[in-house]
Design a protein that fits this description.
The chain is α+β, with helices and mostly antiparallel strands and 276 residues long. Helices cover 44% and strands 21% of the residues. The protein contains 10 helices and 10 strands. Strand 5 and strand 6 form a beta hairpin. Helix 2 runs antiparallel to helix 3. It is globular.
């Protein structure tokens, strides 16, 4: 018999790290989710039974004690065993710090599974986050604090050792991303970003390539376009006003960049959203 207890946040005020949902489920035989994608990170910690997690053309047969991570916007499927279905605790989250924190665990996109003996520590941490759930801002902050503890447990058992050079690159990128998050709507340059991070433009470029796989210009452009899409979807602002609101002084240039990245104009994007 399936038994599910969960909490899902209606909104979040914490941009750096926020709990989206948390809970526990004793799955029915062959209970399945997917194929589909999530819009946030989602950790499942299996406490009993068995099941299969499929992602990126690979399938992982997992059992009690195993932990798996779902990455945002990645097609996945997970299915409980037909005879001994799994039970698991989960916690879903997102935020600008999420990827950097997860990079310090043993999770990776190539192998999003951890088979480490956490005893009862990881389960209890996620259970505590669920016990703290509620609709008030104070509840959200408590859950986020417990999420940091949960990630800290995963980090403490990590076998991955980050080189000093890679750590410096991560620190540089964190500062740069923080500056971009707060100032993308301004007419900032990569020189401004590098100055805030305390490095040269060349060092900043190398740090982004190492940690993000893209240049700082590409990162800033993606951030601005992401915010532009939210405005196109949720407001009636003219295209020129949307452009200015996300840091593009020239509306025509904004439209060219948008079309190059999205294969449609801002107007076509808004029309498509409004007609869904």
């Amino acid at each position: 018999m399936e038994n599910k207890h969960s909490f899902r946040a209606e909104y979040t005020e914490n941009a750096s790290l926020s709990v989206y949902n948390v809970g526990y489920e004793k799955c029915a035989p062959l209970h399945r989710w997917g194929s589909g994608v999530r819009d946030h990170y989602l950790i499942h910690h299996i406490v009993s039974g068995k099941g299969i997690y499929s992602v990126g053309g690979k399938s992982y047969t997992l059992s009690a004690g195993d932990t798996f991570l779902i990455y945002p916007n990645t097609e996945i499927t997970y299915t409980a065993d037909g005879v001994d279905p799994w039970s698991y605790y989960w916690i879903g989250f997102n935020g600008s710090d999420a990827e950097q924190l997860l990079a310090r665990t043993d999770f990776s996109r190539d192998y999003p599974v951890i088979s480490t003996d956490f005893g009862d520590e990881l389960r209890r941490s996620i259970q505590t986050a669920y016990d703290m759930s509620g609709r008030h801002t104070s509840d959200s902050m408590k859950m986020t604090g417990q999420l940091y503890i949960t990630l800290g447990i995963l980090m403490s058992r990590s076998t991955h050792k980050t080189s000093a050079r890679h750590s410096r690159a991560e620190s540089c990128v964190r500062k740069a991303v923080r500056f971009m998050d707060f100032n993308y709507a301004m007419n900032i340059s990569i020189r401004d970003v590098a100055d805030y991070a305390g490095v040269s433009r060349t060092t900043l470029y190398r740090a982004f390539i190492v940690t993000e796989g893209i240049s700082p210009v590409e990162f800033l452009t993606a951030l601005r376009l992401s915010q532009a899409k939210k405005l196109l979807q949720n407001t009636d602002l003219p295209i020129s006003a949307v452009a200015r609101s996300v840091g593009f002084e020239d509306a025509l240039y904004f439209s060219r960049v948008f079309r190059k990245e999205e294969n449609m104009t801002p107007g076509e994007y808004r029309h498509g959203i409004n007609n869904k």
